[in-house]
Amino acid sequence: xxxxxxxxxxxxxxxxxxxxxxxxxxxxxxxxxxxxxxxxxxxxxxxxxxxxxxxxxxxxxxxxxxxxxxxxxxxxxxxxxxxxxxxxxxxxxxxxxxxxxxxxxxxxxxxxxxxxxxxxxxxxxxxxxxxxxxxxxxxxxxxxxxxxxxxxxxxxxxxxxxxxxxxxxxxxxxxxxxxxxxxxxxxxxxxxxxxxxxxxxxxxxxxxxxxxxxxxxxxxxxxxxxxxxxxxxxxxxxxxxxxxxxxxxxxxxxxxxxxxxxxxxxxxxxxxxxxxxxxxxxxxxxxxxxxxxxxxxxxxxxxxxxxxxxxxxxxxxxxxxxxxxxxxxxxxxxxxxxxxxxxxxxxxxxxxxxxxxxxxxxxxxxxxxxxxxxxxxxxxxxxxxxxxxxxxxxxxxxx
Length: 399
What we know:
This protein is an alpha/beta fold. It has two domains: 204 residues, Rossmann fold, CATH 3.40.50; 186 residues, Rossmann fold (3-Layer(aba) Sandwich). The chain has 16 helices and 14 strands. β10, α10 and β11 form a beta-alpha-beta unit. The radius of gyration is 23 Å and the shape is globular.
């Protein structure tokens, strides 16, 4: 345990300094780390790799999905994984004497909620305290959709956590709904890979190689509610206005059916020469995609969207952002001068914003500078871990 000192006043003018011992919190983290590469898995990995004052972590990895296209979908193999996770939680609790449970609750999706009910009802009672970190938002909005027996299990699994961590103030009020004893807002953060990349490849080199036309970037799993079709319909409008552009989509298709839908639309709209599908990128290949982009376009209306890491990555690379006024995104960008915040599912507004940026290089430069500043001042990994430490410090308070 870490030893601090506290000053005790004894009578008038006499003070004694006595040592106090802070509890070392052994926290059992139940959550998936990459693969797949998603916001929640990446942030749990950053949590485990951090250094904190009085916290030690034991990790029980969930491995229900090896790809983002499988998240939230039932498969018989997930039942076997569920049993393994339950066994590993019990074993870790006994072996390491971890008495605090850290758990990322599901979003508004039936299959992950059923998983949570099994895990939390089966193991939460073993722990002195519970921390819920809402990487997905909207759990509270799903409660009324459940039948009465499942609502009882829902209450047993989720109600009254000791700490609830939300990623943004504008995300659904899951912590209040679940009657959390303490609530903290902890914004996501990412490492400053952009700074390292800029040293290797200065912007002046990029400017000399840049082709004519607007380079638009989208990064996420390719699915309807991440705004893929909204972006493509906006691109069709750009083409009709004879605006020169190319859009690069980074990510894996959520299904074969959606892939066919998208490819058919691209062909029918005459966008074949304007749209590139780059698949899943990581490391320097992903950094290069951000580095070469003029604008990051992410017109999401995804139910579980909270505080998107891809937007933070775009800010770190100093790229103007075109996105939606949805879930926690306004908290990220409001007043930054780095983004166009638009209504969800409004391709005309997306097209107008992209056209404005295509026509004004100085505006792109200014918004890019604001984007980089927003990242440095708010969304570095150090900022994220300092806010997490503030939440963990509350564990020292008596119940």
